[in-house]
């Protein structure tokens, strides 16, 4: 009574609805879903060739190659011009801004070359991690300013999907609630902007493998992070069928004394995804997170053979785990280009089989067995 309305008046008030203002037309939704499905068609995954200029330096310096634009172009050309054996293995290639506008020796634009091979061109659109004040060394990712205009231009220039990397750490004090929420929201805002411009967003909340935490702890944190990400995507009305998720596999920290089998990693990973990722999401393209080439293939294969129901395509979006042996074989020499391309093809074929659950490991031989872990990895 004292609230100024009688019981009777309260009952006749119309129920307040949450309202829907469609963010995308049916045509826009169909285009986004079609692009996402092409990228993760059976046996296909993503070549992440979007290393920033600084990251390329970290790849080239150890093999004695100067980090120049021309050397970066020559190296990426050797990947993009691999023969038709990769056509059934690679559904999409993520470019760095510079690469999108580079050409092959004979003047063919890289992005045109990739599209002519019926692969989808992607572009890295974030502007790197920045400190999140009031946390123990945690970060958020910048790059929302001007993103819509950049996406519109990239779409014109042939890119149909994008990548944005958020980073979280596991320690006694992290990830904090603040870092989880802030990164979930920035990923959702990025995804929404991409979709408005006809670009499929890859949502990448990477939980770093640094630390001595065990498998259970990584699984628990992965579930909390992914739950927050999908809540934010829902809040921002992101169309899930027109997205891809790029998560870490659930693994123990690099300093954890316990070594887990591929089957244990697969069970923890698939369980975490089943608890948090809606079946509407078209595909999950795992990052390799510093696993060796061989580990990345073996674990992906185990994930695809995990005996739980898996409603999404489970495949790869690998950088180092597709390139380490190729870089090693190349060393900047013209005469090594053929051998380097062969190494890349070998890894692409291995991961294509792993995405189908049909990869048989030959044991960890040469470079393929070497750890690609970089402490506190930053792009």
TrEMBL record:
According to UniProt, this protein's pathway is: Carbohydrate degradation; glycolysis; D-glyceraldehyde 3-phosphate and glycerone phosphate from D-glucose: step 4/4
Write out the GO MF terms.
fructose-bisphosphate aldolase activity
State the reactions this protein catalyses: beta-D-fructose 1,6-bisphosphate = D-glyceraldehyde 3-phosphate + dihydroxyacetone phosphate
Tell whether Lyase is among the UniProt keywords: yes
Task: Give a GO biological-process term.
Answer: glycolytic process
- PROSITE patterns xref list: ALDOLASE_CLASS_I
Family annotation (InterPro entries): Aldolase_I_AS, Aldolase_TIM, FBA_I
Region entry Disordered: which residue ranges? 1-22
Pfam families named in the record: Glycolytic
Keyword line: Glycolysis, Lyase, Schiff base
Q: What is its EC number?
A: 4.1.2.13
**Keyword Lyase belongs to the record:** yes
Biased composition regions of type Polar residues, renumbered to the chain: 1-19
Q: Which family does the entry's similarity section mention?
A: Belongs to the class I fructose-bisphosphate aldolase family.
NCBIfam families, sorted: FrucBisAld_I (NF033379)
**What name does this protein carry?**
Fructose-bisphosphate aldolase
- Native organism is Cyclopterus lumpus
Q: What is the lineage of its organism?
A: Eukaryota, Metazoa, Chordata, Craniata, Vertebrata
Q: Which gene encodes it?
A: aldocb
